Amino acid sequence: MRTAVVIGTGLIGTSAALALAARGVRVHLADHDPDTARTAASLGAGTDEPPAGKVDLAIVAVPPAHVAATLADAIGRGVARAYVDVASVKGGPRRELAALGADTTAYIGTHPMAGKERSGPLAATADLFEGRPWVLTPTRETDHEVLNLALELVALCNAVPVVMDADAHDRAVALVSHTPQLVSSMVAARLEEADETAVRLCGQGIRDVTRIAASDPRMWVEILSANPGPVAEVLAGIAADLRATVDALHALESADVDERRGGAGGIEDVLRRGNAGRERVPGKHGAAPMAYETVAVLISDQPGELARIFADAGRAGVNIEDVRIEHATGQQAGLVQLMVDPSAAAALTAELRDRGWALRRP
């Protein structure tokens, strides 16, 4: 791949353009808002000048509702040898493109499983896709050269290719991406009118659950409008669990011993099923999740403190597998939780104590 055009210079389009440009591909940028394309170009993502001739690959990075029309226009103009889109739904756009009479042999639907709460070119980074799954949805009519160019795109972005059927992909992202967004927003919505005293009690748990609730509502309306059926099916299952959980909680208020016992059993059932589901979420490098041991360190809000902790861990020869920070409300301090291999926890604890760190129970 020597040349590419990116149509749609938001977060995903600009990030792909930055990654390609960094690998020596000449990237042309286009957007319905010329200022957005110019912004992406100023970041080093390519040029906002149109290509002089046919490019190797066209990457359509527009909202799902506009994917088919944008692709049909680009294919009709002969912009590229191959065409991909990066929308978060795959089945609908392909069917719409076929209905428009476009040549679909030169097209393959793709979806990089990466993103941020922030949108737009200023949020883009060349490393956004590194190590992340990038779904490809070829069909029997997909040209081999087109598939190879799509695979090259994934490789140049340092992502991991995953081949799926388009409709199976849409059902999968309904479960692992689209529904979590709605559930996160629903929980966060409870905070809007909450008493200030309650809000001040927010800890890491509520921060974890509501992190993605900061996402752009307009963008998510477009995404969910393109995949409503599968999302509704997942939510229906959650709604059934919610109803059963509400009933179980009410049973715990009962004066009847058997009802209370049944309520406790219902709560335990949903919590245990949650444990089982959480254990299936891939861990580091996509492997099965590992049970890490947590070493918790009290840290002051001062420049260089995190770097000092990591350096001290390095001196102990310990690899930090994961890290999280729990901020102390109203204080210039926090609790850094270092997740390490259980066999390394004792050595890390001893090293940090020797270097004056205040350790806490995680």
Structure description:
The protein contains 13 helices and 11 strands. With 362 residues, it is of the alpha/beta class. It folds into 3 domains: 3-164, NAD(P)-binding Rossmann-like Domain (Rossmann fold, 3-Layer(aba) Sandwich); 170-278, 6-phosphogluconate dehydrogenase C-terminal fold (Orthogonal Bundle), CATH 1.10.3660; 293-360, ACT domain (Alpha-Beta Plaits, 2-Layer Sandwich), CATH 3.30.70.260. The strands form 2 sheets. The chain has a 7-stranded mixed beta sheet with strand order 2-1-3-4-5-6-7, with helices on both faces. Strand 6 (133-137), helix 5 and strand 7 form a beta-alpha-beta unit. Helix 6 (166-192) crosses helix 10. The longest helix is centred in the middle third of the chain and has 27 residues, at 166-192. It is globular and about 70 Å long. The N and C termini lie far apart (49 Å).
How much of the sequence lies in strands comes to: 15-25%
CATH class of the largest domain: Alpha Beta
**Anisotropy-based shape:** globular
What number of domains? 3
Major β-sheet profile: 7 strands, mixed
Distance between the termini: 49 Å
Please estimate the helix content: 40-55%
CATH architecture label of the largest domain = 3-Layer(aba) Sandwich
Relevant CATH superfamily of the largest domain = NAD(P)-binding Rossmann-like Domain
What is the residue-mean pLDDT, rounded to a whole number? 92
Tell me the number of helical segments per DSSP (H or I, 4 or more residues long): 13
Annotation, overall tally of beta strands: 11
Low-confidence stretches: none
Adjacency order of strands in the biggest sheet: 2-1-3-4-5-6-7
What CATH calls the topology of the largest domain is: Rossmann fold
- What Rg do the Cα atoms give? 24 Å
Structural class: alpha/beta
State the order of secondary-structure elements, H for helix, E for strand: EHEHEHEHEEHEHHHHHHEHEEHE
